[in-house]
Write a structure and sequence with these properties.
By secondary structure, the protein is an alpha/beta fold. The protein has one domain: Rossmann fold (3-Layer(aba) Sandwich), CATH 3.40.50. It has 3 helices and 3 strands, in the order E-H-E-H-E-H. Strand 1, helix 1 and strand 2 form a beta-alpha-beta unit. The mean pLDDT is 84.
Length: 86
């Protein structure tokens, strides 16, 4: 299998939204994108844990912001917050 992480397309400088970023696969995905130089917008029902992930990314030299996000607020809030990280 071809390693997907070796593709020539770069995410460096791009804004990436990770939903469910406070733990598990979301957290791991956030770290991977941050390692590749993406600006990471993290959302989760647990805003405190999402902020912990964002702080860890910032402490490692990356760009990340976190927001608590409920299902009802999803469409409008995501657009608003993604524009704030650019």
């Amino acid at each position: 299998m071809v390693k997907l992480s070796k593709l020539s397309r770069s995410v460096e400088g791009s804004v990436v939204h990770i939903k469910g970023a406070a733990s598990g696969m979301g957290r791991a995905t956030a770290y991977l994108f941050a390692d590749e130089g993406a600006k990471v917008a993290l959302t989760d029902l647990n805003g405190d844990q999402a902020e912990t992930v964002a702080r860890e990314i910032r402490d490692a030299g990356g760009t990340a912001k976190a927001w608590a996000l409920t299902g009802r607020a999803w469409p409008a809030s995501v657009a608003f917050h993604l524009n704030r990280i650019r």
